[in-house]
């Protein structure tokens, strides 16, 4: 008996492990790092090279330039994000929507093991049963009444929430005209309106917390560029990004003790986008949830405002909309951004595939 959801075609090659992100990381910690840059002139001096020798002057100039850019980067972050808040994990109550699987589950498990109090809101049961330090609340975040009820339960059971991670999402992966009105309502309610519901329910608690709080918004690159078969998802994620930026501006004035973190990932290797093929494995590698989780956790732990884009192109995607329209069209065709969803299976399809495999094994 064949599975109704065959494994999508892969685009792996001999250089699959190599990506522009890996090269950028290597360069940042070597050629473009101040410590390494200053090692070079020191080595020249160890060889008794004259101070005025061209290699010595060039290496000094390079080290000074790299150090200057790192200083500017630090100043830029301080101006953009301000001072961090103090974070004590034993006092933190972390609420994660869509935390029963994927990225949300990873973050929940890490914080649960580290001693924080974690509440997971999801309509699905948790994939691994009960995780240490994690309390599961069955909640459809697209229903404002359920969100309000669960918010009251969390504050009663666990204490005042200090971190809200809006991570819940659903991907239907259909052309616009193939979507029913009910599906459109479901997609926009889960991917966009749920952020308003959770913020309305939990922000007052974050504002009351003595040490301040953190709001994490998980958006998507698709909200910047759009893609075929993702009209509803792209519209919602564009709205989520705009909501986060407006909220950050409001909180800076009214509640400066609350930090905001915007996460804009590319394609994640989670069941949500199972089957989608990244257009270019070198320029647009699939992002592992553990890498995004590490970045989010680091920002929360540091008590910082942050803008996280992964992989590398996600941090520069805004420049796409600056290009002339003709160039944008060529870039889209070359990148294949509108072709990726043709192999989409998704979470529901993956479950069906697993059931088919289980039936074969039982047979």
UniProtKB/TrEMBL annotation:
Example GO molecular function: oxidoreductase activity, acting on the CH-OH group of donors, NAD or NADP as acceptor
Signal sequence segment: none
Keyword check for Plastid: no
Ketoreductase domain location: 92-271
Superkingdom assignment: Eukaryota
Protein species of origin: Schizothecium vesticola
InterPro entries referenced in this protein's UniProt entry, alphabetically: KR_dom (IPR057326), NAD(P)-bd_dom_sf (IPR036291), Sc_DH/Rdtase_CS (IPR020904), SDR_fam (IPR002347)
Protein name as annotated: Ketoreductase domain-containing protein
Membrane-traversing stretches: 22-44, 56-73
SMART domains (UniProt xref): PKS_KR
Keywords: Membrane, NADP, Oxidoreductase, Transmembrane, Transmembrane helix
Family, as annotated: Belongs to the short-chain dehydrogenases/reductases (SDR) family.
